[in-house]
Amino acid sequence: MDSALEGLVRQIHASPVRCVLYLTGGGSRALSYLLCEPGASRTLLEAAVPYSEESLAALLGRQPKRAVSAEVAAELARRALARARDLTQAAPAVIGLSCTAALATDRPRRGAHKCFVATGGHETGQIRELGLTKGARTRAEEEEVVARLILNALAEACGLGGRLDLGLLPGEQVRDVTPDA
User: DSSP states of 121-133 as a string?
Assistant: First the structure.
């Protein structure tokens, strides 16, 4: 773990915010980064990786039309926030964070490589979309970009100023989106 990454994770753990994470596979390295630094138990209440279609449908209570979407990310963040509130008896400094992602795979992918990262807090929520240049990175490299985006979103939700460089390629950008509901 590089020093900037290590420093941001330490700042997250030093903040009073506690969270539940729901990551549908892509971005799960962020969970590893959080757990590699001392103090994770002050931050992380719970994490789940509903990786299969069946697991995601069970968590949502329905089969989504598209697993990788702003709508699913927003719903997962709301459910993560509700779970965080349940676990802490509605403490004010809790958030839910989710990520849905379609990353490089070992079979042909028809759609774009992208992710949606959503946060839900006691006052606000935010959804970010990042489209990745298809074929430009390995799965591990795409995973790293998404994990860093998740940590940046968590840092922002904690009220922290620092951000990690995502290593974006020309034409790639993180943009705020709203779900189509």
Answer: -SS-EEEEEEEE-
Q: How far apart are CA 104 and CA 106, in angstroms?
A: 7
Dist CA 8 CA 30 (whole Å): 12
pLDDT at 181 over 60: no
Please state, in angstroms and rounded to a whole number, the distance separating the CA atoms of residues 130 and 174.
5
> In the chain, how long is the greatest CA-to-CA distance?
45
- Once rounded to an integer, what is the mean pLDDT over residues 133-137? 95
Identify the pLDDT of residue 80: 97
Selecting from 3.30.160.20, 1.20.1250.20, 3.30.565.10, 3.90.950.20, what CATH number does the domain 3-177 have? 3.90.950.20
What SS3 class is residue 51?
coil
Strands 94-102 and 18-23, bridge-based pairing = parallel
- Tens of pLDDT, residues 41-100: 999 999 999 999 999 999 999 999 999 999 999 999 999 999 999 999 867 799 999 999
Say how far apart CA 171 and CA 86 lie, in whole Å. Answer: 41
Cα 126 from Cα 176, distance rounded (Å):
7
The proportion of the chain whose per-residue pLDDT surpasses 90, expressed as a percent, equals 87
Q: Which residues contact 88 (CB under 8 A, 6 or more apart)?
A: 18, 45, 94
